[in-house]
Each structure stands twice: as C-alpha cells, then as structure tokens.
C-alpha cells in the first residue's frame, strides 16, 4: 500500500467509526453489540474501501448488524465525500473481520501448549521438585 492509501484508510476508519456511533439508528445495530472498525483497506485506484468490522453477539446478530452496515454504506459514502478532500469517495464494502477470531484461536492453542509443556516439566522433575522455569 502506498502512503496515500494508508492515510486515506486511517481517515476513513476514523470517520466511519464516528458515523456508526453518532449517525446510525438502525435497530439491527444496537450499542450492546459494540461494533468497531478494526481496519480499512483502500484499493490502489481509491475506488473501493474494504471496511473490516468486529461485532459482538451471536452469529445471527452479527449478520444482522453487518447487513445494517451494508444498507447504510451509501449514506456513509455521501458523508465521506463531504468530510474528505476527495472529489469522489470510494465505494464502501463491509466485511466481518475474521482475523481477530483467528488470533484468539492461536492464543488458545499457544496457552494449551504452554500448559502441556509445564505438565511435562513437572513430571520430569518429580512430584516434590518445582519445574525448571518456575521461580
């Protein structure tokens, strides 16, 4: 990504997050679901902005909230055109951010590996001696 697309992406992220908090009154998107914009990826020709969001709640609530965001994308694009110094704002495409879910799963796997290695160390040292890495 070029510097310009990165800067535009961070500006779009900030503006859309503000719009979600202040301007959207969709019942499918209640504040309890805590929608947050995690990242924005702008195409090199500045025509499309892929907006990645995380939404708390059940998968059904997440899909309903994502549909609410997709429904309001046109209004957000209009407001972005006014807020940014661009002649035409990029089209907005909302996506659920699966990267966070993958990171949490990886952290859980690493936690299990750590626990298993501590258990192996305890077995090696015997029941009375502490593990080598414990102090």
Q: In short, what is this structure?
A:
By secondary structure, this protein is an alpha+beta fold. The protein is built from 4 helices and 3 strands. Strands 1-2-3 form a 3-stranded mixed beta sheet.
The residue fraction in helices comes out at 40-55%
- Give the class from helix and strand content and strand pairing: alpha+beta
| Order of SSEs | HEEHHEH
Strand order of the largest sheet: 1-2-3
| End-to-end separation | 46 Å
Number of domain modules = 1
How many E strands? Answer: 3
Question: Considering the protein shown, what is the CATH homologous superfamily?
Answer: K homology (KH) domain
Identify the overall geometry. elongated
What is the subunit arrangement here?
single chain
As a whole number of angstroms, the C-alpha radius of gyration is 22 Å
Characterize the biggest β-sheet. 3 strands, mixed
| Strand fraction | 5-15%
CATH architecture label: 2-Layer Sandwich
Task: Provide a descriptive summary of the structure in words.
The structure is a single chain. The chain is α+β, with helices and mostly antiparallel strands and about 140 residues long. It has one domain (about 5-95): GMP Synthetase, Chain A, domain 3. The chain contains 4 helices and 3 strands. It has helices spanning about 5-20, 60-70, 75-85, 100-125; strands spanning about 35-40, 50-55, 90-95. It has a 3-stranded mixed beta sheet with strand order 1-2-3. Strand 1 and strand 2 (about 50-55) form a beta hairpin. The radius of gyration is 22 Å and the shape is elongated. The relative contact order is 0.14. The mean pLDDT is about 85.
